[in-house]
């Protein structure tokens, strides 16, 4: 299917129009989902901790170090998800002759490395 051709149909639940792209889902196994959720929970805690540090007027350098740590944790989660995405979602779409996925992934990678 070409990028300008989008199949539109009605959602069976809310009756609104949805495109095929709106319905895409990941195909990750339970282990991967659990690992990603665990990482996100840890990062969420880090962010709450940083917020508390700001509210308590903690020394700026200490806060900046914690922000750097949270960014590194997010980068790690991104790399894990990108790897799993390439090995499942992208592979499956390429096998289905959907070459548009290459442009999609490149756009995502370029956004990640900015």
Automatic annotation (TrEMBL):
What keywords would UniProt list here? DNA-binding
| InterPro entries reported in the protein's UniProt record | Metal_Tscrpt_repr, Metal_Tscrpt_repr_sf
Q: What is the phylogenetic placement of the source species in the record?
A: Bacteria, Bacillati, Bacillota, Clostridia, Eubacteriales
PANTHER family linked to this entry: COPPER-SENSING TRANSCRIPTIONAL REPRESSOR RICR (PTHR33677:SF3), TRANSCRIPTIONAL REPRESSOR FRMR-RELATED (PTHR33677)
Name of the protein described by the UniProt record: DNA-binding transcriptional regulator, FrmR family
Organism this protein belongs to: Desulfosporosinus lacus DSM 15449
Highest taxon listed in the record's lineage: Bacteria
Biological processes per GO annotation = negative regulation of DNA-templated transcription
**Molecular function via GO:** DNA binding; metal ion binding
Show the stretches that span the lipid bilayer.
none
């Amino acid at each position: 299917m070409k990028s300008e051709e989008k199949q539109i149909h009605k959602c069976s639940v809310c009756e609104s129009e949805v495109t095929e792209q709106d319905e895409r889902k990941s195909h990750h196994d339970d282990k991967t989902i659990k690992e990603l959720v665990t990482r996100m929970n840890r990062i969420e805690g880090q962010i709450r901790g940083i917020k508390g540090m700001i509210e308590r007027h903690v020394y700026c350098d200490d806060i900046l170090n914690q922000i750097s740590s949270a960014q590194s944790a997010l980068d790690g989660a991104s790399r894990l998800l990108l790897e799993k995405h390439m090995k499942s979602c992208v592979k499956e779409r390429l096998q289905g002759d959907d070459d548009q996925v290459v442009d999609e992934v490149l756009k995502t990678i370029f956004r990640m490395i900015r």
